[in-house]
Every structure is written in C-alpha cells, then in structure tokens.
Amino acid sequence: MTLLELIIACSILMILSTAAMPLVRITIVRSREAELRRDLREMRNAIDHYKDMADTAAFQTEVTSNGYPPDLDTLVKGVVIAGNKRVRFLRRIPVDPMTGQADWGMRSIQDDPDTTSWGGGNVFDVFSKSQGTALDGTKYTEW
C-alpha cells in the first residue's frame, strides 16, 4: 500500500511541475524584458541629459553633432565643464539582457527612425540588437 501511495504522489508532483515550467519561463522572459526597458530608459535619459547640457553650452561640442554624444563611451567617460569638473552621464554601459552583451544598436539624428544601421556621427537613440520577439509580439529592436 505504501509503495502505491508513493508512486501516486510522485506522479502528481511530476504533473504539477510539468505544468509550472511554462510559467517559470514566461516569468524569466518578463523580468528580462523589464530589465531591457529599464536599461533603454536609463541610456536614453543619459543621452537627453547630455543634449540638454550641450544646448546650454555647459561644454564644447562639435557643430555637426547637434549636441548629441559621439558614442556611448562618452556618456561613461563624461565631459569636462567649467572649473575642470567632470560630469558623467552613465556609470557603465549596461549589458543587454536579451543578448548578454554590452553591445547596443545606435541611431544618429540623420538616420531613419526604424533603421537598424548606425550612420555614425552622433548617438540620438539606442536599441537592442536582439532579433527576438517580445511577449507582446513586438520585436526588441523596435523598443
């Protein structure tokens, strides 16, 4: 009798764990998507902050840059403003949770809004290089 009860209990546990696996996978994807949204917002806010400071002439920029940073490393290294004070806009370039690399797609102000190739010159926007599709059906490159 005890062996039969043990087999039934193990069978029930296997069925329940099999049903829970898709929920766990979806939860992991949701957390990665939330991290991706947060990282994109953080980098875009840093670009906007750089642009705001450049527009107020807090530091020198190239005329052709339209006040946007030349690359993401400039946001980490920072710029020198009056009084030899260095202002940094990001502590580090975040790792893309979908690709696992700190390699982001960039768009310049001259590029089309939906392009996936960077025309160079300045960084107007960033996006994930992941070719995956989000849970809501959109591509990560469109975020």
Structural notes for this entry:
With 143 residues, this protein is mainly alpha-helical. It has one domain (37-142). 42% of the residues lie in helices and 8% in strands. The protein has helices at 2-55, 72-77, and strands spanning 79-81, 85-87, 105-107, 125-127. It has a two-stranded antiparallel sheet with strand order 1-2. Strands 3-4 form a two-stranded antiparallel sheet. A hairpin with a 3-residue loop joins strand 1 and strand 2 (85-87). The longest helix has 54 residues, at 2-55. The radius of gyration is 23 Å and the shape is elongated. The N and C termini lie far apart (58 Å). 18% of the residues are buried. The mean pLDDT is 87.
Short description:
With 143 residues, the chain is mainly alpha-helical. The protein is built from 2 helices and 4 strands, in the order H-H-E-E-E-E. The chain has a two-stranded antiparallel ribbon. A two-stranded antiparallel ribbon has the order 3-4.
List keywords for this structure.
mainly alpha, two-stranded antiparallel ribbon, two-stranded antiparallel sheet, 2 helices, 4 strands, 42% helix
Order of strands side by side in the largest beta sheet?
1-2
Report the structural category.
mainly alpha
Distance between the termini: 58 Å
Question: How would a textbook summarize the main sheet?
Answer: 2 strands, antiparallel
Question: How many discrete domains?
Answer: 1
On the 0-100 scale, what is the average pLDDT? 87
Could you give the count of β-strands? 4
User: Considering DSSP H and I runs of 4 or more, what fraction of the residues is helical?
Assistant: 40-55%
